[in-house]
């Protein structure tokens, strides 16, 4: 089964940044989407916010 939600570690790996930067990016996405602080961010929401192709992100997540 493919991964649906992202964690800071995943975001850090995808963007080439550190864990803390991954947390901050997820928080900015939650604020943008008006989600609660602890809500999950889906791969589709992440891709819409960052303009990254969903297929490439899903492939990168499934590789690791």
Describe this structure in words.
The protein has 64 residues and is mainly alpha-helical. The protein has one domain (5-62). The protein is built from four helices and two strands. The chain has helices at 8-15, 19-33, 43-50, 54-63, and strands at 5-6, 41-42. A two-stranded antiparallel ribbon has the order 1-2. It starts with a strand and ends with a helix.
In short:
The chain is mainly alpha-helical and 64 residues long. It has four helices and two strands; from the N terminus they run βααβαα.
Structural key phrases:
two-stranded antiparallel sheet, 64 residues, mainly alpha
From the alpha carbons, calculate the radius of gyration and give it in angstroms: 11 Å
Shape: globular
The level of helicity is 55-70%
**Residue share in β-strands:** 5-15%
Mean pLDDT: 94
Number of helices: 4
Q: How many structural units, i.e. domains?
A: 1
Largest sheet: 2 strands, antiparallel
Write out the strand line-up for the largest beta sheet, numbering strands in chain order.
Answer: 1-2
- In whole angstroms, the N-to-C terminal distance is 13 Å
Pick out the low-confidence regions. Answer: none
Class from secondary-structure proportions: mainly alpha
The sequence of SSEs as H and E is EHHEHH
- Tell me the number of strands: 2
């Amino acid at each position: 089964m493919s991964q649906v939600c992202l964690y800071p570690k995943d975001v850090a790996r995808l963007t080439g940044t550190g864990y803390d930067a991954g947390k901050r990016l997820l928080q900015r996405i939650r604020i943008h989407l008006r989600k609660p602080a602890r809500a999950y961010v889906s791969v589709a929401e992440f891709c819409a916010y960052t303009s990254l192709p969903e297929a490439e992100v899903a492939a990168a997540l499934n590789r690791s």
